[in-house]
Amino acid sequence: MSTLTTHTTASRDSHSIGLCKFNTTSNAIEVSDGSNWQVYNPDTATGWSGSNTYSLNFDGTDDYLSASSIVTPTAQQGTISVWIKTNTNAFMPIFSVSNNSSGVINEWIVLQVDSGGKFEIISNRLGTVEAYESSSTVTDNAWHHVMVTSSGSAYKLFLDGAEQTLASGDNTGTWIGDLSTKTACTIGGMRRSADTANTFFNGNIDEVAIWDSDQSANISTIYNSGTPSNLLPLNPNHLWRMGDGAEGGSGSTVYDMSLSSVNATIVNATSGTNTAGAAYQSDTP
Predict the structure, then answer these.
(1) Which of 212, 214, 207, 204 is CA-nearest to residue 257?
(2) 3-state secondary structure (DSSP) of residue 106
(3) Of 49, 92, 156, 216, which has the most beta carbons under 10 Å away?
């Protein structure tokens, strides 16, 4: 026979529901074991740690992060927010979604640094290339926050919290869902034609966040006057903290700290601390 146990106010607080409670200080679910409250931590995710200790350094030669699945595959609008640090003027992908099938080189969308040191959003839909470029450069070996938004019909580019004027290119708002096929999702690189046409980022990348919505109205909160802060209250569809997530600055997996759990794997490095490939560094905005 089932029995009902009565709990007194001494054994639970105002945030508890039966034998579970939400801790508003740590933002964690806690479960009672009969004596103490134990933290419930699904899939080792820890959310926001309250600090930003690490970024991920890419050598520009062959290492990148490969996501376990395509993000926002049907989204017609969205936002990509990233912190970067580089002193290299070259075509360097920051974040990309592409068709990596053999022989296919013309189906992709990428946020990247261009050969002139500016950042841009550029897409290729079966030979139709569209690009929207920033008016300012970002290759001064200092940390910069770059963000692109699409309303579905137009882009906005933001550098260090300020909207950029259109320098050149096509402001169409093409987004991930506009690609007819996509098989690869990468950070710090772009994969095409079964990996025969790769390019790579040279420098540091930190706090990569993706939304399926236009977050331009929240740019002040996202940029936070130059200091990365907790983006989880803005409900990003994906968030890779590049060392400060569940990976804790080691290992070859960078965890997606959103509820989507699209984790990314470091490619061409034996572990997250391998200095021959992508490596966690105590170098952050």
Answers:
(1) 207
(2) coil
(3) 92
Q: 37: helix, coil or strand? A: strand
Q: What are phi and psi of 42, to 5 degrees?
A: -65, 135
**Tokens describing residue 272:** 């997250």
For 7, other C-beta atoms within 10 Å of its C-beta total 11
Domain carrying residue 18: 1-40
Give the count of domains, the chain.
Answer: 2
154: domain CATH number is 2.60.120.200
- Whether 77 and 111 share a structural domain: yes
Mean pLDDT for 131-136 is 91
Q: Over 118-179, what HEC string results?
A: EEEEEEEECCEEEEEEEEEECCCCCCEEEEEEECCCCEEEEECCEECCCCEECCCCCCHHHC
pLDDT tier at 8 (50, 70, 90 boundaries)?
A: very low
The reply to whether 47 falls in a domain is no
Q: How confident is the model at residue 40 (pLDDT cuts 50, 70, 90)?
A: very low
